[in-house]
Design brief:
Number of strands: 15
Number of helices: 10
Shape: elongated
Radius of gyration: 24 Å
Bound molecules: zinc ion
Helix content: 25-40%
CATH superfamily of the largest domain: Zn peptidases
CATH class of the largest domain: Alpha Beta
Order of helices and strands: HHEEEEEHHEHEEEHEEHEHEHEEH
Strand order of the largest sheet: 1-2-6-3-7-14
Amino acid sequence: MSESGSLESEILGVLERLVGFDTVSDKTNLDAIAWIEAYAHQSLNVRTQRYFNDTKDKAALVIQIGPENEGGVVLSGHIDVVPVAGQAWDHDPFSLTRRGEHVFGRGTCDMKGFLAVALSAIPELSRAGLTRPVQIAISYDEEVGCLGAPPLIEGLLADFPRADSVIVGEPTGMKSVIGHKGVQLSETIVRGYEVHSSHLHRGVSAIHVASKLIAWHDRQNDQSREATSAFSFDPPFSTFHVGLISGGTASNITARDCRFTSDWRLLPGCDADELWDRYVEFAANIESEIRKIADTARVTVVKGPHTPPLDPKGVADGAPPFIPGYLDRAAASVVSYGTEAGHFQRSGFNTLICGPGSIRQAHQENEYIAISELLECRKFFRNLACEMS
Ligand SMILES: [Zn+2]
């Protein structure tokens, strides 16, 4: 078998195992983590550490290859995947299926493909005479708000020598991505007061109240359009979106309840806490108005997970010194989706995003990745190992 043929079968062998574990975010990942840990320990110069969530049904894993020196590189990926419910797959999403030069399955692109390449490189990395370690950091609950990254990073900093740089392997077609927006999620819950709709003035329609709070989002959209970014985000402004709403019982009853969820996508430099405080204040003012009509009426705003932005300025200033010229910095771009990179940057790492596959295939039915991209990623790790030896 040619060298690229054997690399290909190593990568696909690992990817087949990873795809075979149903690690949709609301399920346990412990079987997958146990398999990965055992796989890593087949090589020498490897140290691993698990970090469990509060309910002990999920774990993050750090695999260190090489010496206990500072200045290494972290390869970061999440093991959880998005659900397949309601999608029309042509084959079992949890069984790797090859068609021509592509492999199909949930997570092939986002982002078990990257993890499979990193894991299959362990034997070579362990023999490479690294002078600084490679640390593979595998998280859970990324797809539900990057919840697993902060405890993973805390463990990494406490238990392992500090790395210089982090490569988050989200699908970018192996191009460097040096910035993304921050994400703030929230839920707004309105309790109104029910009366016959003909007596509207004596009741509080939770739906009408919610509409004022949603209109606040539109005003933010109008204002943010004026403040565009120096970097080419698409769109080049922060966005405020309401994606889910429920409320009311009949057209002739003022609604007792209405709730909706918000998703704010904030440019780097945009202060999420300050915006949140403004929203809370607006909601409190609305609440004091409706309580004049019915003192049981309420507006409750619940802050959800916050994913910090990846600030391109931070990456530009702290260009990872040993990232080979392979990563074309001149061609580096920014994206609008959130990743764990913002959390790593906030913890002081030089962080960029670079991984195989296209974000267009992520989260789709019949998700796939090109085998050529997996091999390109493998070549990148080989160059990295040379730089670090
Ligand atoms: Zn992802």
